[in-house]
Write a structure and sequence with these properties.
Strand content: 35-45%
Number of domains: 1
CATH class: Mainly Beta
Radius of gyration: 21 Å
Structural class: mainly beta
Distance between the termini: 61 Å
CATH topology: OB fold (Dihydrolipoamide Acetyltransferase, E2P)
Number of helices: 2
Helix content: under 10%
Number of strands: 6
Largest sheet: 5 strands, mixed, barrel
Shape: globular
Length: about 120
């Protein structure tokens, strides 16, 4: 009987993944579970960029980065660059990232003036 080495064409070479590897692609995994509300003033917007964000300054002077949904979801919700101008008051509901010292919120709802934009995945369905 021939001796087959433990490598070569006979060995199953499928990658081994931990059970939570599928979750690592979830865009909410680095965020907390609680929704928070932040009232602030827009200082800059990048809604048309590849990673849409708003830069805002809270009333206590702290700067925050607001991560928005994808460009297509923002467009379906009606959120465009002309809707969010520097100086506008904004109210954001979302999940704060769990990274220590990072002032970043992944937005689910954004209210600019009297118009509310639903950016959550549930709202897009």
């Amino acid at each position: 009987m021939p001796h087959l080495p433990p490598f070569g064409r006979v060995v199953d070479r499928r990658p081994v993944h931990a059970p939570d590897d599928a979750l690592s692609q979830d865009r909410w995994t680095d965020s907390g579970d609680e929704l928070i509300r932040l009232n602030a003033r827009i200082t800059d917007n990048n809604i048309g960029g590849s990673d849409p964000t708003l830069q805002v300054r809270a009333h206590d002077g702290v700067n925050w980065t607001i991560e928005l949904a994808s460009r297509s979801r923002n467009a379906r919700a009606g959120l465009t660059e002309s809707q969010a101008l520097p100086g506008d008051q904004v109210s954001v509901v979302g999940r704060r990232t769990a990274q220590f010292g990072e002032n970043r919120i992944k937005a689910t709802h954004v209210t600019i003036g009297d118009k509310t934009f639903d950016l959550s995945e549930e709202g897009a369905a």
